[in-house]
Amino acid sequence: MQAPTATHPKPPASTPGGGAATYTTIPISISISDVISRSVHNFVAAISRHRPWPEFVAAGSFDRPGSVSSALARIRKNFVYFRVNYAVVIASCALVSLIGAPFSLIVLASVLALWLVFHFFREDPLMVSGHQLNDRLVLCALVLVSLSAIWLVGRVENVVIGIGAGSLLCGVHGVLRNPDGLFLDENEAASQGLIGSRVGSASSPGFGYSVDRGDVAKTGLGD
Fold first, then answer.
1. Whether the Cβ atoms of residue 170 and residue 163 lie closer than 8 Å to each other
2. Which among 30, 82, 72, 26 has a CA at the least distance from the CA of 51?
3. Packing angle, helices 156-176 and 68-96, rounded to 10
4. How far apart are the first and last CA of the chain?
5. HEC secondary structure over the chain
6. What's the average model confidence in pLDDT over 62-83?
7. Taking the complete model, does pTM exceed 0.70, yes or no?
8. Cα–Cα dist 193/5, whole Å
9. Residue (of 173, 163, 206, 209) closest to 189 by Cα position
10. Helix 102-115 and helix 68-96: axis angle, to 10°?
């Protein structure tokens, strides 16, 4: 990530014949509070794009796939469509696995929040004392904080079991949920490589959704 810049005109040099104005770029310093605010906004926007839960567990939409290849195709299509729901399910299972240890739950939830704010949903550079922090440095710091938290709480097996249980539930859902009748809009389909990218669309950080630019066509997943 690079620091955004603003372009301001610089007064032209005094020459006998006159001349066109020249321009220079001045870096804009973004405070950490602004970075956090925008990351939280991106996170809320991504979560708000989850599919309705009644559609996620719709009665009559579950049946056995006809073959292994059909099951794999269902998993891929359902993951594209329900990926935010799956992320919520897995995260919820991981947190539930720590429900009997409030301190561990608070510590690991705080570490997860740091990853969401400073890595997955961050768009702006981090500036400290006027200097931009390298993304690799931020990533290394998050890894060190995560390892320290895991060493402190000592409940890795609980988290692994929770994530495993959530992943298993999502896998079973992906196999049994018939994707016929599920549709992506054009921007979402382009972000997943199902169709060619559309000029004028912009991708959002986090779960890979695209920013809507008006009414768009629908792309079927079950075709």
1. no
2. 82
3. 140
4. 38
5. CCCCEEEEEECCCCCCCCCCCEEEEEECCCCHHHHHHHHHHHHHHHHCCCCCHHHHCCCCCECCCCCHHHHHHHHHHHHHHHHHHHHHHHHHHHHHCCCCCHHHHHHHHHHHHHHHHHHHCCCCCCEECCEECCHHHHHHHHHHHHHHHHHHHCCHHHHHHHHHHHHHHHHHHHHHECCCCCEEEHHHHHHCCCCCCCCCCEECCCCCCEECCCCCCEEECCC
6. 94
7. no
8. 31
9. 209
10. 120
Which residue bears the tokens 């570490």?
111
Structure tokens at 130: 């006027």
CA atoms within 13 A on the CB side of 131: 4
pLDDT digits (tens, 9 = 90+) for 105-158: 999 899 999 999 998 889 888 888 878 888 999 999 999 999 999 888 888 888
CB atoms within 10 A of CB 66: 8
Residues, the chain, total? 223
| Location of structure tokens 């299509």 | 77
Task: Tell me how far apart the alpha carbons of residues 11 and 21 are, in angstroms, rounded to a whole number.
Answer: 6
* CA–CA dist 143, 145 (Å, integer): 5
Amino acid type, 73: A
Task: Kindly tell me the burial class for residue 18, based on how many C-beta atoms sit within 10 Å of its own C-beta (0-12, 13-18, 19 or more).
Answer: exposed
